[in-house]
Amino acid sequence: MNEPVITRESKIADLLQTLRHDGIHDEAVLRALAEVPRESFVAEPFVDRAWENVALPISKGQTISQPYIVALMTQALELNDRMKVLEVGTGSGYQAAILAKLARRVYTLERHKPLLRQAEEQFRALGLHTISTLHGDGGLGWKNQAPFDRIIVTAAAQDVPPVLVDQLAVGGIMVVPVGEVSHTQLLLRVLRTPSGVEVTELMPVRFVPMLPGTEEF
């Protein structure tokens, strides 16, 4: 008896079913995950595993996040197509590509120049023309493009970064992992209000740390 052929489409369908089961209910987010080719953003040895619900290594000691975490963080942003979004930590570029399907404009910055250049190549190849990139220190944000309707941070800060809160519009939402790498980190949803912030804990997570400065090579 022949083994059933596992197609790319069936892998995507299985992943979406898993995400729905795990609480991802925003159909626009699920549609974006189905449309963006994750295999374009993973390292060559892991292409066959691109549609598994796991984090995978990329260069510079970084990872491409688990699809569930990407979906959860994106869903928590409550995006629409009028919004201007800042991403801190471009990494592979996968999260920015998802955001570009849902928001009007995405500004993404990365401290590792080689990672950023690779991500830019993928954005061009996929025709994602609403993404602007910057090689810079994520902890400083992108001041001359602020304020942002939404901010997503893909590296763990020690606390909610006040510099990034300042770059968030009133009524805006930031999703950020907070905590020491050696201890439990928490994914937080931060709502900026006229008088300060309201913080909601989403779930325990594990991210690489947010580091100061930039790297050229």
TrEMBL record:
Catalysed reactions listed for this entry: [protein]-L-isoaspartate + S-adenosyl-L-methionine = [protein]-L-isoaspartate alpha-methyl ester + S-adenosyl-L-homocysteine
GO molecular function terms attached to this record: protein-L-isoaspartate (D-aspartate) O-methyltransferase activity
Record keywords, A-Z: Cytoplasm, Methyltransferase, S-adenosyl-L-methionine, Transferase
Keyword Cytoplasm among UniProt keywords: yes
Enzyme class, broadest EC rank: transferase
Pfam family name, one: PCMT
One Gene Ontology CC term in the entry: cytoplasm
Keyword Nucleotidyltransferase: no
UniProt-listed GO biological process terms: methylation; protein repair
InterPro entries: PCMT (IPR000682), SAM-dependent_MTases_sf (IPR029063)
E.C. code: 2.1.1.77
Protein name as it appears in the record: Protein-L-isoaspartate O-methyltransferase
